[in-house]
Amino acid sequence: MLTSKQKRFLKSKAHELKPIFQVGKEGVNENMIKQINEALEKRELIKISVLQNCLEEKEDVAEQLGEGTSAEVVQIIGSVIVLYKESIEHKTLQLP
């Protein structure tokens, strides 16, 4: 679990990021989780956009992505989910 200080740090880092994945009406699937997991390994911190035509609530999407990738949901702001997972090979972020 992330502390509130760590979450604040990650939110500030995520501010300048653009969403690199979109969840549409198909919702979350295995292939998406696999791709997001690979992106998290390379970047550690990513944004995912939940499109308006998505049939699931963004909180449920965030929970599914978090569980599927073993990542922490840093925040849900509007229709954007911010995920963090410490990278094994490409560690760039140093949490406070």
Automatic annotation (TrEMBL):
Signal sequence annotation: none
SUPFAM superfamilies xrefs: YhbY-like (SSF75471)
Keywords: RNA-binding
Domain CRM: 1-96
Molecular function per GO: RNA binding
Organism (species): Amphibacillus marinus
Keyword RNA-binding: yes
InterPro entries cross-referenced by the UniProt entry: RNA-binding_CRM, RNA-binding_domain, RNA-binding_YhbY, YhbY-like_sf
Lineage summary: Bacteria, Bacillati, Bacillota, Bacilli, Bacillales
Protein name in the entry: RNA-binding protein
Source domain of life: Bacteria
